[in-house]
Request: fold
Amino acid sequence: MFVLDNSGSMQNGRLETVIAELLRCVDSLRDDQEFYVIFHSDAVYPLFYPDPVDRY
Reply:
């Protein structure tokens, strides 16, 4: 599970850096693993439901 802050404090390239690291982490997962991403600021925003890594 990845929980990402997308509040105003993540401006000036911070959110882009976090997303790049998220992609690096997802790329390192095995095909039989699943992951989940949640964005939060003043509320919680699930990106999608758990899916196998090999779907992406």
Q: What stands out?
A: The mean pLDDT is 85. The helical segments are 14-27. DSSP finds one helix and five strands in the chain.
